[in-house]
Write a structure and sequence with these properties.
Blueprint lengths: L2 H7 L27 H16 L4 E3 L9 E4 L9 E12 L2 E5 L9 E5 L2 E7 L5 E7 H14 L10 H6 L1 H10 L4
Antiparallel strand pairs: 1-2, 2-3, 3-6, 4-5, 6-7
Bound molecules: zinc ion (ZN).
């Protein structure tokens, strides 16, 4: 299935955040070929869900739609809703380690080492390619959400200590997962 077909199948009015260990979270997502009405509807629904869930970023696979886009609001504000379509990091430098969480891993937190500064290239809602250089939380969101598009999760970025600390929360999520 290509990206348009995956989006066509989704119902933006019933979007919800899926949780680890849902296998859709570990898929490598499909590139988006066209900016059309169903895509825009999906992005708007994701912005709403991200704010309602009190998140600063939400990747399409987190709502079960495995296509290459993520929503973000680095300043956590309805006036700062961003979308990155087919994003890629074209430059990165430095290193920074901070605690991260993920809407697909409730109650799980881990210190993750990331690049301190990244330049991302992506397409916006108008279909234009843009580049953005960001640091701090914004750079961390970009790297975390981009990981999602390649099926890479918070748990894959955890060190031994974080895995141990979060063992119970991860086990609970695994026990709660309903494949149906
Ligand atoms: Zn996440």
């Amino acid at each position: 299935m290509n990206a348009s077909e995956k989006i066509e199948l989704a119902d933006p009015s019933t979007l919800r955040v899926i949780r680890y260990p849902d296998p859709r979270l570990t898929e490598v997502c499909s590139p988006i070929e066209t900016i059309d009405a169903p895509l825009i509807e999906l992005i708007e629904a994701m912005w709403g869900l991200m704010l309602d869930s009190r998140g600063v970023g939400l990747a399409a696979p987190q709502v079960g739609i495995t296509v290459r886009l993520f929503a973000a609001t680095p300043s956590f504000s309805p006036d700062d809703l961003r979308v990155y379509i087919n994003p890629r990091i074209i430059e990165e430098s430095g290193s920074s380690e901070e605690e991260e969480g993920c809407l697909s891993f409730p109650q799980v937190y881990a210190r993750v080492k990331r690049s301190a500064v990244v330049t991302v290239e992506a397409m916006n809602l108008q279909g234009e390619i843009f580049q953005e250089t960001c640091s701090d939380l914004h750079a961390r969101i970009i790297q975390h959400e981009l990981d999602h598009l390649d099926g890479r999760l918070l748990v894959d970025r955890m060190g031994t200590v974080a895995k141990l600390t979060n063992r119970r929360a991860l086990k609970t999520l695994e026990a709660e997962f309903d494949p149906a």
